[in-house]
Amino acid sequence: MAAKRKHPKVIWNSAINQWFCTKCGQVSDRVSEQDGHLELDQYECQIPYVETSAIASDEETVQS
Ligand SMILES: [Zn+2]
């Protein structure tokens, strides 16, 4: 119970038979909830679109 989970809200999506994080949208096809959480926890809970725009704006401000 002490382990921190990176993905605060992971639900079972019965339409695709995968565990699904409602925050970042990443999925795991593991059957058990515990395995699904373990797989998702290998990745940071972040939204891909936000990450992409952050990288783009970083490159604009790089000074050489
Ligand atoms: Zn997540």
How are the strands of the largest sheet arranged? Answer: 1-2-3
Give the total of beta strands: 3
Form type: elongated
Low-confidence stretches: none
Strand content: 15-25%
**End-to-end Cα distance:** 47 Å
- Output the helix-strand order: EEEHH
Major beta sheet summary:
3 strands, antiparallel
Number of domains: 1
What does the radius of gyration come to? 15 Å
The chain-level structural class is: alpha+beta
Give helix % range.
Answer: 25-40%
Any ligands, ions or cofactors bound here, and which?
zinc ion
Report the mean per-residue pLDDT as an integer. 82
Annotation field: number of helices: 2
Characterise the protein shown here.
The protein is an alpha+beta fold and 64 residues long. It has one domain (12-59). The chain contains 2 helices and 3 strands. It has helices spanning 33-40, 48-61; strands at 10-13, 18-21, 27-28. Strands 1-2-3 form a 3-stranded antiparallel β-sheet, with helices on one face. β2 and β3 form a beta hairpin. 14% of the residues are buried. The model has no long low-confidence stretch (mean pLDDT 82). The protein binds zinc ion. Zinc ion (ZN) is lined by residues 7, 21, 23-24, 26, 45.
How is this fold's topology laid out?
Blueprint lengths: L9 E4 L4 E4 L5 E2 L4 H8 L7 H14 L3
Antiparallel strand pairs: 1-2, 2-3
